[in-house]
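explain this:
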Amino acid sequence: MAMVKKVYKMEDLDCANCAAKMQDAVCRLKGVGSCEINFMMQKMVLEYDEEDQKDVFKQVKKCIKRIEPDCSVIFE
């Protein structure tokens, strides 16, 4: 199981409280090793299992939309 740690840009993250909620929710997702969301920098540092990448990205997007519908993560 290879863990990958990458930084992703976030768009329209308007609330520090929401960022904290997102961070907690994403950390609990299957396949996620760790997640840090920096509200000021509009960035997310995500550590995840490389084999589960597609599923992890899908779950992360769902999590974020549930907490702050206008916010999105740029997975590149």
